[in-house]
Structure formats: C-alpha cells, structure tokens
Amino acid sequence: MSMLTVSGVETFYGAIQALHGVDIHVEEGEIVTLIGANGAGKSTLLMTICGSPQARTGSIVFESEDITALPTHQIMRKGISQSPEGRRIFPRMTVLENLKMGAAFSEPANFDTDLEQVYTLFPRLKERAEQRGGTLSGGEQQMLAIGRALMSRPRLLLLDEPSLGIAPMLVRQIFTAIKQINVQQGVTILLVEQNAYHALRLAHRGYVLVNGTIQMTGAGKDLLARPEIRAAYLEGGAT
To answer: Which of 5, 45, 150, 219 is surrounded by the most beta carbons within 10 Å?
Structure first.
C-alpha cells in the first residue's frame, strides 16, 4: 500500500525553481532513501511534503488524502514528523523539554510510554535528560532531534541528513537506530542522506535526485552496485 505519493511536484523559491516534476512514492513499512549532491533539492522535497514551501504544481497524497495545500501544522497532525537538517533543537531547553515539545500533537496519556521508548532507543538522552540541548555533542543533538520527532507518534518519519556533522563512531549508531525505528516500531521512513553507502545499504528503495529531477530509482542494494552511483557518490566523483 502506498503511504506517500508525490506526483509531478514543482517547487519554487521566488522565481527560482528547485524541483522539476518530481515523482516518488513510499510504501507502508519501507525505508526509502533520497540521495544526491548538495543543492540537488533533497531537503526542499522534504520541506515541500511538510507544506513549507508548498508545491506550485503537482500533488502530494498521504494515506489517500491530498495534503498538497494544507498548512504544516495540519500535515503534522496527519501522522508525518520530520527531523530536519541541522537538527534545530531548542538549545536553551533541556533534553526532556525538547522531547515534550515533540509530543505537542500527541495524546498526553501516551507521553510516559513514548518517552520510555525514546530513552530505550537512545539511552544517552535519558542520562542527559536535565541537560540543556545546546550543550550536547553533535551526535547527541541528532539523537534528540530524532527522538523529538518520534514523540508525536508518526506513521511517516522524514529524516534529513541524520549523519551530517556527526563523529564517525556515532554514525553507525544513528543508522542502527533508524533500522530499529522501522522494524521494531513499524514506522515508515523517508531518508535524505549524503552518506550514500550507509543510506543505500539500509534502504529498501532509493531515488537519485539531480538538479531537482529524479534521474534514477531502484532497490537500495541495486543502486549501490551501479558503477555510476559509485563513481558519483562513493568515490569522490562529481554528479
């Protein structure tokens, strides 16, 4: 069953067109990854799904409902949550307060259960519960951003560059957590990631975005094996 279908989406920033007729779909239970060079439009696509900016043409359908023209807060209430690029946690708030912000759209009765689930996934957050978010390491802040997104009980989780700026020793831990979220919690995931190797190994399917257009799609392992993908994204080459 298709959970998310993006059809012919074009997105603009003023007069500048960022997405050119993008078509992707995400099936329920999948991890789908979107790879591409800087400036390809990956983050723009995630933000367009979330309604900011809104698509100028095309459609975005989530669980059989057209959400293209909905404002962001209504889209979030439908069961979509995002861990944005750069994490964007609240630095002056504690870890616990950040997680409470993520639970704003969830039923209060679920809070303790959801909090314990996040702490089980990321034990370090429990250790740092009363520490201000801005004092955490980059890896810990990424854990917090993902945990905050999970507190709304999403059915679709959008992850934007979760390994960006993280020490290599923590990258594997983040990707292990992403798999656990998918397998153990049953959350469908759309992942934007520059680390093509880890992303394609993890994903059921992948899309390659080049200059705002989808240039290639296929199973994650199949894309990983293609020489043009290896040359462009795994061996220091340019797209």
So the answer is: 45
